[in-house]
Structure formats: C-alpha cells, structure tokens
Amino acid sequence: MIQNIPEVKLGIVAVSRDCFPVTLSEKRRKAVVEECKRLGIDIFEAKTTVENENDVLKALDELKAAGVNALVVYLGNFGPEGPETMLAQKFDGPSMFVAAAEETQENLFDGRGDAYCGMLNASYNIGLRKLNPYIPEYPVGDSSEVANMIAHFVDVARVVIGVKNLKIFSFGPRPQDFLACNAPIKPLYDLGIEIMENSELDLFEAFNNHKDDPRIPEIVKQMQDELGTGNKHPGILPKLAQYELTLMDWYEKYRGSCKFAIFANKCWPAFQTQFGFVPCYVNARLASRGIPVACEVDIYGALSEYIVTLATQLPATILDINNTVPKDMYEANKDKFKDYKLTDLFMGFHCGNTPICHMKYAEMRYQLIMHRLLEPDKEPDITRGTLEGAIKPGEITIFRLQSTADCLLRSYVAQGEVIDVDPRSFGGIGVFAIKEMGRFYRYVLIQKRFPHHTAVAFKHVGKVLFDAMKMLGVDDISFNQPANMLYKDENPFK
Fold this sequence. Notes:
Blueprint (H helix, E strand, L loop, with lengths): L9 E6 L6 H17 L4 E3 L7 H13 L4 E6 L5 H10 L4 E6 L14 H14 L11 E2 L1 H22 L1 E6 L14 H5 L3 E5 L1 H9 L7 H12 L9 H18 L5 E6 L4 H6 L4 H9 L4 E2 L4 H14 L4 E7 L3 H6 L1 H4 L7 E6 L12 E4 L1 H7 L9 E7 L3 E10 L5 E11 L8 E6 L3 H10 L6 E5 L4 H10 L4 E4 L15
Parallel strand pairs: 1-2, 1-3, 3-4, 4-5, 6-7, 6-8, 8-9, 13-16, 15-18
Antiparallel strand pairs: 10-11, 10-17, 11-16, 12-13, 14-15, 14-17, 15-16
Helix pairs in contact: 1-5, 2-3, 3-4, 5-12, 5-17, 8-9, 9-11
C-alpha cells in the first residue's frame, strides 16, 4: 500500500477585474467546478471572488480553513493582475493560472470576458513577483477543457508538495568506486528538502538494537507470504526483517518537521561482512510503500525515485542503465522489438531492489557479483537478500534529477517500454526500449554527465515530470525527443 505521499487538496478562486461583471467570472467558475466533479476531481470552490487586495485576504482565509494546499487561480474574465498574482504569492503551496474562453458568438457584449488578454498581464505580474506557477501549454479554455487542465495539475502539484515536505536520510559516505553518485547537497536546500546525513556506524548500532525485536516474526511472515514459492533462502528472512524494522523506526523517529522521508544507504562492500546480508529485498519492500531506499548512497537517485512515485502514485524502482542487448537476442526477437533499432535498446538492471509488483516472476536469491568477491567457492550466506527476476513488460518513464558539481540542477525524462523478452541474466532486470536512446545516451547522459542510476516509473508520466521540474525551478531538462525543439519551455510530452 502506497504511503509517504501527500494528498492534494485543490481549491479554485475566481478573479474579476472591476470593470467587468463579477457574475460572469462566478458563473464560469461554477461551470468549471461542475466539470471537475464530473471527472471525479475533488475541488474546493472559494466563494470569494478576488477583485482587490482585501478580497485576497478573504480568499486566503477561506482556502486555509478548507485545508487547501494547491490553488487554481481562474481568470473568469480579464482579472486584476495585481491582486490575482498577490493571491498566488501569499498562498502557501503550488498554484496554477488558467483562463476562460468565450462561450458563444451570441453573447460577445455583456458576456465577453477578455481573459485571453488578461492572461498576458497576469504573466507580466507573475514575473515581477518572481513566481513560478503552473501555466498549461494553452491556458485558455471552456469549462471542460479547464477541468482537464486541472486534472493534470493535480499530479504536478503532488510532486511539488511532496518535494517541499521531504527529508532524505543518508547512511555512509559515497563509495569511491561510484563517484558519479556524489553530488553537492546545497541544491536540495534550494528545493526545500531537509537532509540528515549519518554514518554506517549509526545504522549498524540501530540495527543491533533491534536484535530479538518481538515484531520480527510478523515481518518474516509477511515476507514469506509475499515471496511464496520464490522464497529460495528462507534462513535470511529474520535478518532482513530486523533491518526493515530498523529503517522504519528511524523513519518514524527522525522525520521531525517533515511529513515525508526517503533513504539513500551504503550497501556494499562492508555491509555484507558486518550486517550479514544484502539489503535489496528490504529496499524493494519499502519502495512498494512509497519510501524509496536508493543504493550506494545515491541521494539524488532516491529523490528521483520519490519524484516518480509522487507523479504516478505507484511504486518505483532505481536501476542501472546497464548493458547493451546482444545482436543475436535482437535478431531472435525481431517481432517483439517492432520498429525499434538495436541502439534504441538497453537492459535496465539492479541487484534486486525492484518491488515485486513490477516483476513477471521474482525469487529471493544471492548477489552473484558480491558472492564472487566475498564468498568464492562457498554456499551463499552473507550475500543473500536480492529479489531477482524479469521486470514486467509495459510502459515506463526513466527520470533523474541531478546536481552538477557547481550546484546547478539538471534532469532528464524519457518514455518507452519494457519488452517481453527474456533477459537471460541475473538480478532484477528487463529489456528496455526507448526511441532515440542512442542519441539520448550520447548527447544527454554522457554529454551532460549524468550517472548510471535512473529512476523508473511504470507509466508514461513525462508531461507531469516535465511540468513539475519547471515549477521546481529546474531549468535544464532533457528528453528523448528530436533535438530541434523550437522553444525551450515547450513541453514535448503532449
């Protein structure tokens, strides 16, 4: 069951310029609310229509009393650019600006609102106040069209609210062999995120304090039920249950002022020799609840995984953009690869942290690479704990938000699919297809110095992620579309 994500409570406030009839704006607002209800969107309709600064204060009181945390500023007519943008400035949460289209040629005297014009002045005042609201690609429409724009805003707002109320727990320094996961944390504070960095010793102490915890048998039972016939190493489950309780108790104890929290944990090589297991399955279980646990102290990887969880309201995973698809596998499965080129394909892999709900089949196994290193010629013991198998076919979006060395935020978004082809390898793994992946790999991932980890959403949410990154102030957003986009701010995910 997904937890650890905010509930978006929408509110709509109509605005009206005093030389236009206020009743026009109010009538159009009611029509939008009715259309939202028809779409199943719960939205609070503020009764105050903003014409001046005093109305702004009244509307804010209404919104606060109703618990609204995401605001739709609706230009039912031209609108007063000062008060309407002041409303967004003083509102504590993400906001959206949208305007009413004219309904009929039969009523263009008393029924003409000129909101098409008003949006221009609103945008100028938005700039003066240095605001960053969500504005749809074409932000003018009738009640039905506006309601559909609001439906998209719900997902965008959930990402923004979640990020602004997030704490990241990290354990251990970044591994030297994976310096790509090492990025400055200053931009996290710019996003409104709290971070609590801890040592591996803190985690080890907390883990040891959970020895013989009376809740362990119940967690073991849950794991047994979830794994079913895939429970190939039942002897490791008590240690994994002890570790899961350690992380969840840390989550509850140290979240502090933040509503939500995630983890970025050191997981090798000393982890196995000291803790006595591989933590991948626990990472998968927490991700299933909306609490990503990124491997290798990948702080921005954990954040990226959380962002796609917010966007989809589904469990996400973090994978390596790992290896090429062999030519003979490509030739043997041409019918399944459709019109994808070989360079459009790659394998997404990680040791075993993908939630079981996204696996075609899954078994509790041991980490093969670590076993070679730590337990050569022995039965697996301290390297047990991975959840392995093929990832289910279907839609995916890969995404990453990353700080550069000089503290600038960059991100990428690419949509594609997992192909129903046996990857014939170990770990949690799947054959991924993304149009123009070859170009994307060279001119985005390599050119812009992105690391190997990518967050995977099991749904196409490129448009939501693009718009959310714009609202969060991420200026450099790359995507797997042709590189000749005309306008920097244009959203390619229509």
